[in-house]
UniProtKB/TrEMBL annotation:
Its cofactor is FMN. It comes from Chitinophaga polysaccharea. This is Nitronate monooxygenase. It comes from the Bacteria. Gene3D superfamilies: Aldolase class I. It catalyses: 3 propionate 3-nitronate + 3 O2 + H2O = 3 3-oxopropanoate + 2 nitrate + nitrite + H2O2 + 3 H(+). GO terms for biological process: response to toxic substance.
Length: 359
């Protein structure tokens, strides 16, 4: 087994190790640290305005000359929720936060605004971004044609074999196979029951079906996970939770402290925070919103409703009332610099294979 393979050649990187895009956690400094180390940093821009995207890309480019990926949320938003569902959920959120001593700003129904991948893609093209990853679905045929015309490497997220097949048929070059262990939102996009397939089961089934580079994501925290993913047929890995506590992470001090103490059973899937299934550390925000038994708004409207409330809790550095997206193995994350975490992954993976070229 070697580090160099089809994926490293395609992406122009040294190691097939990808830092997962993590909206709300990943900074330009984190992206640049990984790309400067020979991996692929990923800049998350899901839902951000084109102006913000331009500024973030500029910042990453000021810190690295190496390739990095930009990550979009490629879903078609459903219509805004009906007024009474929206008002009822907002009242419930305010009641819970006020009981906890917070006064969140109100969200106005009239102000709900969604920035689509359609506004973002031209910005990425203008910036000459070589690799685009996406989750929550995929661009339409025009979007794929645009990405192909600009020779972008197209990386789509799949949580099932059927989603991987759909991504391949649409023109994706690389499949990110996201297992149920993964922190953050499920990338699931085909109708039907939520895929709950684990990384170990998902990766070989996708690899055998699509015959194209597959990146394993979910629960990979160290060299053992990297080696296992490669054995299962993945060309590379995408790791998010491993970087949650790094110096470059936007996680607050209390959030990092919680992450330093959690065990394998402390995360769960929930729709309470954003309206989409996502894995995070179980806290009061999740348990109390779920216990209230009210229907959540769909994504991204539930997310918009909880956002000002999470912001005040975040400012107070209160980990009970914020979202702490994290994977099932996040308790193994180290509080080092991103470059040191990356260097240790490379070092210990090479140690596992002393007699071959995995060095
Ligand atoms: C805090 C956090 C935020 C995330 N945000 C995104 C995102 O913006 N876009 C995306 O494609 N995936 C996102 N993910 C999912 C990751 O891409 C990846 O699937 C996951 O981190 C892999 O599992 P692991 O956390 O066990 O390493 C996020 C994950 C976490 C932990």
């Amino acid at each position: 087994m070697e580090w160099k393979n089809e994926l490293t050649r395609l992406l122009g990187i040294t190691y097939p190790l990808i830092q997962a895009p993590m909206l709300g956690i990943t900074t330009p400094a984190m992206v640049a640290a990984i790309s400067n180390s020979g991996g692929l940093g990923s800049l998350p821009i899901g839902g951000l305005s084109p102006e913000k995207v331009i500024a973030l890309i500029r910042e990453v480019k000021s810190l690295t000359a190496n390739p990095f990926a930009v990550n979009m949320f490629t879903y078609e938003p459903e219509l805004a929720p009906d007024r009474s569902t929206f008002d009822g959920m907002q009242a419930l959120i305010h009641e819970l936060y006020q009981a906890a001593g917070f006064t969140p700003a109100a969200v106005k129904y009239e102000d709900l605004q969604v920035h689509s991948w359609r506004e973002q893609l031209p910005v990425l093209i203008a910036a000459g971004i070589p690799s685009v990853s996406f989750t929550f679905g995929m661009p339409d045929a025009d979007g794929f044609a645009l990405m192909k015309a600009h020779r972008m490497h197209i990386m789509g997220t799949a949580t099932s074999v059927a989603e991987a097949v759909a991504l391949k048929a649409a023109g994706a070059d690389i499949i990110v196979a996201q297992g149920i262990e993964a922190g953050g939102h499920r990338g699931s996009f085909l109708p039907g029951a939520l895929s709950q397939t684990g990384t170990m089961a998902l990766v070989p089934q996708i690899a055998d079906r699509v015959h194209m580079p597959v990146i394993a994501a979910g629960g990979i925290m160290d060299a053992r996970g990297i080696a296992a993913a490669r054995m299962l047929g993945a060309a590379g890995v995408q790791m998010g939770s491993a970087f949650l506590r790094c110096h470059e992470s936007l996680a607050t001090p209390a959030q990092k402290a919680v992450l330093g103490q959690i065990t394998d059973t402390d995360t769960q899937l929930t729709r309470a925070i954003s309206g989409r299934w996502a894995r995070g550390v179980r806290n009061k925000l999740i348990t109390e919103l779920e216990a209230a038994g009210e229907a959540f708004c769909s994504y991204p409207f539930q997310d918009m409703l909880t956002q000002p409330a999470r912001k005040v809790a975040r400012e107070a550095d209160n980990p009970q009332w914020i979202n702490i997206w994290a994977g099932q193995a996040a308790g193994k994350a180290q509080a080092w610099s991103a470059a040191d975490i990356f260097a240790e992954l490379v070092r210990e993976t090479a140690l596992l294979f002393p007699n071959n070229k995995f060095a």
